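User: Sequence recovery, please. Input:
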């Protein structure tokens, strides 16, 4: 029984124009043009989608009192699936050639999640949208498609469940809209990543479009002032595109602006006014009709091209790649989207079957890529050395925990060696993390229990606080608080008889990184004096080192300090792996990384950082463990030795290196009889 006919919504060219505004804003923003709020184009899409799809569902419900779910999803798959699978497989082919194994493995995982419409959950769990790492995820943009499809599981079911109570249904949709909006506004300051990615906090945007569609169909009164509404709507949308900053304040209350603007434009779009004439211009309509394919293709083109090129040389290059996105989008729309969407002889069963087969293929390929660790054999031996190093910085933290009792309450504690009260405390920054596997094995070999306390970018010294460009104020404050707590705790850890300090001393002494991380800055201040003491940073470090050692020696018999491994200024394992993997490619930039450096070039920076420890060692206050002979030979320090990567970046060693040099820590775990000697610390 077919039921009464369902009147289709008349074609509205202004909606294609509004789609054009949305997609062009997103594309220009992603390709680096100065539209700081261009990402709100996604919010415009959400409202349009709710208005159109919600209107379709409501008209069917209004005419028949029911919704044909199978027919609805066939239409969705017919519209969305062909271009989606073409993009995932096409981008995947390029990703296979370009991406390093661990990156390609993540592509496989993202392909699975996007096919299941769960990529928003995946990316929520991985990182924030505005992180620079986002630019290495070619399928990141599919989060918005996942949100939409999750909504279109929810909406038809709500309509079906409440189909007998028309006003109850409308009331439920209004309540869901209000609850979603309130949750989005309330939780954005607390968890902006969740409110950005997850469906419950975005549902109100699509429900706004749904409610407008219901209201518009229930009202036969002519709307007045359409021109004024159009101008106001356009002002809100374009103002949002230009002015809303990317960051943790979005979506929240800020998202109301583009949503409200879109609603005003949709509600006034049937009139004859300058804004509607602009939105129905042939160029606007062109970008509107290809908007779905353009949205799908532009992000893989951007991410993969910047990955290969290591960023764009200028705006002209960005325009070229953007033009390629438009070309791919038009080809997709012309030869993939439309033929399937408008194929009259393609039964619904074929659409469902084809979607199921394509989904199974992508799921199988994604699982294969993920299980095969991103297919590392695609690259040559040189690239594989650096690839191995780039993946060799994940330590085993299974024994680590957040202490919930004094004296270490609230600190992350990592036991090493055998079980038992710790005799050795290893205290340091991220260099301590880098050496963790070697420290743990050395402790086991000596049968001595130990404890690691570390915090990235936090000098293991008493009486200092830091302000770091790579850290937030909260992280800086946490460093000060943790060091104060450690200061109080050491005297209560009665089993301790040795302390080992590990840190990137050159960074703290000079106040900045070197080579590839020269842009990082750190300023040190005394915790008990005004900020501007007039002292050089190296002098502050020397003073803090002396006072810290003196205090530690009052509590434990022995204090050891690891001489910081030599920095390899221009080295980064991931960057080196890319350069080796893409060597000879026409568009690949010239190599920039250097895997070795003369010791003499490091001498001035090292001498300044090591001077405090040299003085203390000469007085017999500490024992310095000299790491340099393990990484330097014949006057040259190397990031790769005997085909094995020793460095993860320009200052952190790999797990392989930490295990190889673990005998360096033998004096710490075996007592004073094996006391080490500082080897040429003042002049490497």
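Assistant: Recovered sequence (684 residues):
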């Amino acid at each position: 029984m077919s039921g009464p006919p369902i009147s289709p919504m008349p074609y509205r060219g202004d909606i294609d124009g509004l789609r054009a505004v949305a997609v062009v804003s997103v594309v220009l923003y992603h390709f680096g043009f100065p539209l700081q709020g261009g990402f709100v184009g996604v919010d415009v899409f959400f409202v349009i989608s709710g208005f159109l799809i919600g209107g379709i569902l409501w008209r069917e419900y209004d005419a028949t009192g029911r919704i044909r779910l199978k027919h609805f999803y066939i239409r969705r798959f017919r519209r969305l699936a062909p271009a989606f699978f073409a993009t995932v497989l096409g981008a995947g082919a390029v990703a296979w050639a370009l991406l390093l194994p661990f990156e390609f493995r993540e592509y496989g995982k993202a392909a699975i999640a996007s096919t299941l419409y769960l990529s928003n959950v995946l990316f929520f769990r991985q990182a924030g949208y505005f992180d620079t790492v986002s630019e290495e995820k070619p399928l990141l943009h599919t989060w918005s498609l996942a949100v939409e499809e999750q909504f279109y599981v929810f909406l038809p079911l709500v309509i079906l469940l409440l189909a007998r109570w028309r006003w109850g249904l409308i009331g439920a949709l209004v309540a869901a809209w209000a609850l979603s909006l309130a949750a989005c506004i309330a939780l954005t300051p607390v968890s902006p990543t969740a409110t950005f990615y997850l469906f419950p906090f975005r549902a109100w945007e699509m429900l706004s479009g749904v409610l407008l569609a219901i209201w518009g169909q229930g009202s036969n009164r002519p709307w007045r002032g359409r021109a004024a509404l159009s101008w106001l709507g356009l002002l809100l949308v374009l103002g949002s595109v230009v002015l809303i900053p990317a960051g943790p304040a979005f979506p929240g209350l800020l998202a109301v602006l583009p949503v409200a603007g879109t609603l005003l434009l949709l509600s006034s779009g049937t009139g004859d006014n300058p804004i509607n004439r602009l939105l129905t211009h042939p160029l606007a309509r062109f970008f509107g009709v290809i908007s779905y394919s353009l949205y799908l293709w532009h992000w893989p083109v951007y991410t993969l091209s910047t990955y290969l090129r290591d960023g764009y040389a200028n705006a002209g290059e960005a325009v070229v790649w953007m033009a390629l996105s438009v070309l791919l989008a038009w080809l997709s729309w012309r030869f993939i989207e439309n033929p399937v969407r408008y194929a009259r002889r393609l039964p619904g069963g074929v659409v469902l079957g084809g979607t199921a087969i394509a989904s199974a293929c992508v799921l199988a390929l994604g699982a294969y890529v993920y299980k095969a660790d991103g297919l590392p054999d695609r690259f040559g031996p040189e690239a594989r050395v650096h690839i191995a190093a780039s993946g060799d910085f994940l330590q085993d933290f299974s024994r680590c925990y957040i202490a919930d009792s004094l004296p270490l309450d609230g600190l992350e504690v990592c036991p090493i060696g055998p079980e038992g009260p710790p005799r050795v405390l290893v205290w340091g920054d991220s260099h301590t993390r880098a050496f963790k596997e070697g420290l743990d094995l050395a402790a086991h070999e000596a049968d001595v229990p130990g404890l690691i306390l570390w915090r990235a970018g936090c000098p293991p010294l008493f009486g200092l606080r830091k302000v770091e460009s790579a850290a937030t104020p909260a992280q800086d404050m946490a460093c000060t608080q943790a060091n104060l707590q450690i200061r109080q705790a050491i005297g209560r850890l009665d089993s301790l008889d040795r302390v080992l300090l590990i840190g990137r001393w050159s960074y703290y002494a000079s106040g900045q990184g070197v080579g590839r991380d020269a842009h990082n800055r750190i300023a040190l201040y005394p915790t008990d004096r005004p900020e501007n003491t007039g002292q050089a940073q190296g002098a502050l470090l020397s003073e803090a080192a002396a006072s810290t050692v003196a205090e530690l020696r009052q509590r434990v018999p022995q204090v050891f300090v690891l001489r910081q491994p030599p920095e390899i200024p221009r080295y980064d394992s991931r960057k080196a792996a890319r350069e080796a993997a893409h060597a000879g490619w026409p568009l690949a930039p010239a190599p920039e990384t250097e895997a070795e450096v003369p010791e003499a070039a490091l001498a001035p920076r090292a001498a300044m950082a090591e001077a405090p420890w040299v003085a203390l060692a000469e007085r017999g206050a500490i024992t310095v463990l000299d790491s340099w002979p393990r990484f330097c030979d014949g006057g040259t320090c190397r990031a790769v030795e005997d085909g094995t990567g020793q460095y993860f970046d320009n200052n952190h060693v790999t797990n392989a290196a930490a295990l190889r040099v673990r005998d360096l820590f033998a004096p710490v775990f075996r007592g004073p009889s094996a006391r080490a000697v500082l080897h040429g610390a003042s002049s490497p």
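The mean pLDDT is 91.
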